[in-house]
Amino acid sequence: MAIPVMAVVFGGPLYLLIGIPVLLVDMRRNTVTSGRWAMLAFTSFVLLCLAMLFFTTLTDANQRIPGFFLIFGSIFAPIWGAVSGYIYGRFERDFYKQTI
């Protein structure tokens, strides 16, 4: 029961800081699909974890933390991306893609 709550606590800020900018850039260039957004979420999350792992290797910090994030995030990031892709796809209109 605690895993979904912790997924929102840890995944929510990552989604706001990294996920939304990545997905907004993708929305500008491609049509919204759940599968594409799931892959984007997974790819951006893995790149973030690799950066964290590289940083902890350089600073001799605890290397179990990026591994913990990588295990749980690899499961929840694509799910979160697919669900948000579905939601955003339902609200997407061509009118909003026009520049001012």
Give the SSE string.
HHH
Radius of gyration in whole Å, from Cα?
A: 15 Å
**Using DSSP, what is the number of strands?**
0
Average pLDDT metric: 79
* Backbone shape: elongated
Question: Gap between N and C termini, in Å?
Answer: 46 Å
What is the count of helical runs?
Answer: 3
Low-confidence stretches: none
> What does the main sheet amount to?
none
Helix content: over 70%
Report on the structure:
The protein is mainly α and 100 residues long. Helix content is 82%, strand content 0%. The chain has three helices and no strands. The longest helix has 28 residues, at 2-29. It is elongated. The termini are far apart.
Task: Provide a short characterization of the protein structure.
The protein has helices spanning 2-29, 34-59, 64-91. The protein is an all-alpha fold and 100 residues long.
Task: List the main descriptive attributes of the protein structure presented here.
100 residues, mainly alpha, 3 helices, 0% strand
Task: Spell out the blueprint of helices and strands.
Elements lengths: L1 H28 L4 H26 L4 H28 L9
Helix pairs in contact: 1-2, 2-3
